[in-house]
Amino acid sequence: MDGGTHLGTCGMWNFLWRLGIHPQNCTIDGLPNPHASVLWVVLCEADPASRIAALRAWIAGGGYLVAEGHPRSAAAVFGWDADAWTATTPENPYAALASIVPGRAPELLSPARWSFATCSGPQPRLDTRGHLAAVQGERQTPVRALIVGRTDAPALVTGSNYCYINGNAFAGFQAWLQGQEDLQPWLGWRHRLFWLDEWVSVMAERLSDLPALPPALPRPGIQGLSGTTVVIRHDVDHSRDLSYFEEEAVRGLPATHGVLKDPNTAFWRQAIAARPNHECAFHYDTARRSWLRESRMRLRRASASAVAPRRAAVTARGLSRQVQWAKRNGVGTTSLLRHMGFLVYPEWVDALDHVFDAHTEVRGGSSLFRAQVLRWGVDRVDGVSGTIGEWPDAQFPLWYPFKLAHAGDGGRRLRGWESTSIMEGEPELVDQMLSHRIRHIRQRVITLGHHPAHARGATFHRAGSRQAFSQVLDVVSRHGAQVTTLGAVFALADGDSAVQCGQRG
Fold it and tell me: 115 by DSSP, 3-state: which?
């Protein structure tokens, strides 16, 4: 729970992966050739002497090291004055960290209450770039936030063979990415729907003139996908409306359909089976109907949700039992799509980890869209551990499949993938998204979610969403985006070159 512990290594992996690089794990006992690789590492306060010695040997042998983490270990590895460096936290408990680099606007780096490295005096032998600052006051935008600089905390410390990034930035990136920390207070600092993608771009730009990201470094990305890939996702829920399905058939477009355990299961399973280019995915449950809550609301004549989080459904065994049911009933389980508005953290990570191990056919999920995120045992939105995303925010805005970190198991990456989606985006919004370009980002996978239940209802459009959906498909076609299923994206990300990957919109 504390400061992104054990999240940094996976954050580094996802950062490099998002840039199209294919990073590889290594161990201290099996380091690659230092002249052929760049080593990325998170330094811990309790790093053993053997690890420190191996990293020093890597640098001495001509290898380049990119690091974040505890300053004491950094001092030991890089040969700094250990007495001058210490870990501290912002004085204000709601202050986040930003980096201030000459000639550039402040860039948000990591969440509130996180530690960073400070130096008690000048270090003439060290090459430093910029400094860190606390972001507080009216913090929602960089224009009005109070930016309190810390000149004793350099943003970057560089040497001929290393780069130290202050502020645990990659742990922060991973914490925002998988919902351990809330991104909502900071959305105004960047494009709300591409926030984490732009975080990656800014960090890549900052490191682009260093050996950390050499220009010749191969960036193959996900081979088999074009620059822009669109996944059309349908949460069919309790509807039998085939309007979207039929529109896609006319256009020859594939889609991914999340099928629930309900009276419509067989209907949708049979309909999807008749279209081989469509994917039948499992819409796993996260909620239960609270009759007591509904009764209370009726007595008060108040309108409120009659559903509550169903924690038993997102434990390891609970989610696995749901997947087993889907397999027995012919519902596809290559992709798992979250149903209802709850994301229970960190139980949800445990559950997916167990499912990925127990059900090898499951390649990934699409759980990280707008949600009530309930962290560390809370059962309601309290603004601190329980938070909610505003529509149409994506809430986890990184448009590429990525990995989750199991912080309870040393930060180990889960086998399968996770992904972001946006629900019920209108044609103009989709056009804005497909028109947006970000430096250093060569590929993107944008998942557009729709509910057939709204095709003829006035939830999002007065005359129903049927016409708007058709217009969305027109926008996708006009941009020439590749359209495929979520399962195909996961398979290609896994390196399965035999996958057929849809067509142009």
Answer: coil
Q: What number of other Cβ atoms are within 10 A of residue 182's Cβ?
A: 22
Rounded to 5, what percent of the chain is helix, strand, coil? Answer: 30, 25, 45
Q: Rounded distance, CA 207 to CA 505, Å? A: 36
How confident is the model over 236-291, as pLDDT tens digits?
998 999 999 999 999 999 999 999 999 999 999 999 999 999 999 999 999 987 66
Q: Say yes or no: 186 and 242 in one domain.
A: no
Q: CATH number, domain at 236?
A: 3.20.20.370
- The CA distances from residue 477 to 108, 231, 247, 434, 465, in Å, are 35, 13, 13, 11, 18
- Strands (E) in 250-302, as ranges, are 256-259, 279-284, 287-289
Please report the sign of the dihedral spanned by the C-alpha atoms of residue 173, residue 374, residue 2, residue 190.
Answer: positive
Burial of residue 385 (CB within 10 Å: 0-12, 13-18, 19+) is middle
User: What is this structure's pTM?
Assistant: 0.95
For residue 428, name the pLDDT band (cuts at 50, 70, 90).
Answer: very high
Domain of 434 in residue numbering reads as 228-504
DSSP of 456-470? SSSSSSTT-SHHHHH
pLDDT tens digits along 173-218: 999 999 999 999 999 999 999 999 999 999 999 999 999 999 889 9
91/94 Cα distance (integer angstroms): 9
Backbone angles phi, psi at 204, to 5 degrees: -65, -40
User: ω into residue 111 within 30 of 0, thus cis?
Assistant: no
Reference 349, options 276, 405, 417; nearest CA is 405
Rounded CA separation 186/196 (Å): 11
Residue in 460, 324, 343 with CA at minimum distance from that of residue 395: 343
Residue 262 belongs to some domain of the structure: yes
Distance CA 2, CA 112 (A): 11
CA 212 → CA 27, 105, 158, 165, 406, distances in Å? Answer: 19, 22, 10, 11, 26
Closest CA to 169 of 183, 155, 152: 155
Compute the average pLDDT of residues 345-368.
Answer: 97
Domain count, the chain: 2
Q: Quick check: 165 and 110 in contact, CB under 8 A?
A: no
Specify whether 309 is located in the same domain as 454: yes
